[in-house]
Design brief:
By secondary structure, this protein is α/β, with parallel strands linked by helices. The chain has a single domain, classed as 2-enoyl-CoA Hydratase, Chain A, domain 1, CATH 3.90.226. The protein contains eleven helices and nine strands. The two termini are 17 Å apart. It holds the Pfam family ECH_1. Belongs to the enoyl-CoA hydratase/isomerase family.
């Protein structure tokens, strides 16, 4: 169970999440994603990053089972801080980040892709934020970068998912391909970007972040405040305990 970062020829770095069975990341995993993105920023040889995953799906959010095993609030505090750091590091990575999404992308996974620069997805990929069903809030900031406002609210209140094909219609997903072609598609796009002058690309990334209408770091931190309130009120624990008791396969 790891986060690995590998620099390939022509300046393409892949960061791979591999936490069976569903890539629900423990606290350490989120901080490891952040560290990998900071490594990419610091490495002058890195020209573009592909964020990808092994296994059934791209990301199923935080590991609720780990959180419920930890006494007190340190589990939820660690997960929230780890998610914040991972999302922030992707957004602030000095080079473009391409998210290659296979299967499901849920909860914290939306934070990862929403702060990425480009998204490519397999034709079986689905995206959603089931936080309401877990007694928590978060990642609406990032879902808002993928869908129009009223659809955002519908998806958020109902915990429904949206397909990669529909996101492609909105222009949020750059390409939808068979799963067998996902890595090759992401690599081809990465190599196209990597062929550009890296000085210009790094400047372009900073410039695009500078003209964003929303401060994503501050916006997400605001959302997290409500998650803390729900935890202090005991609401979130009730929902997380119920989730663990059901033994559901997807953890968010």
């Amino acid at each position: 169970m790891t986060i690995t970062s590998t620099l390939h020829p022509r300046g393409v770095r892949t960061v791979t999440m591999d936490y069976p069975p569903v890539n629900a990341l423990p606290v350490a995993g989120w901080f490891d994603v952040a560290a990998a993105m900071r490594e990419a920023t610091a490495d002058a040889e890195t020209r573009v990053v592909i964020l990808r995953a092994e296994g059934r799906g791209f990301n199923a959010g935080v590991d609720i089972k780990e959180m419920q095993r930890i006494e007190g609030f340190s589990g939820i505090l660690g997960a929230n801080r780890g998610c914040y750091e991972a999302f922030k590091a992707i957004y602030e990575c000095a080079v473009p980040v391409i998210a290659a999404v296979n299967g499901f992308c849920l909860g914290g996974g939306i934070g990862l892709v929403g702060n990425s620069d480009v998204i490519v997805a397999s034709d079986d990929a689905t995206f959603g934020v089931p936080e309401v069903d877990r007694g928590a809030l978060g990642a609406a900031t990032h879902l808002a970068r993928l869908v129009p406002q009223h659809l955002l609210r519908s998806l958020y209140f109902t915990s429904r998912t949206v397909t990669a094909q529909r996101l492609a219609e909105f222009g949020s997903v750059d390409a939808v391909v068979p799963r067998a072609d996902l890595d090759a598609t992401a690599l081809a796009l990465a190599e196209e970007i990597a062929a550009k002058d890296p000085r210009v690309i790094r400047a372009a990334k900073e410039a695009l972040n500078g003209i964003d209408p929303i401060d994503v770091n501050r916006s997400y931190r605001f959302e997290q405040g409500f998650t803390f309130e729900l935890n202090l009120a005991g609401v979130a624990d009730q929902h997380r305990d119920a989730f663990v008791a059901t033994g559901e396969n997807l953890t968010t």
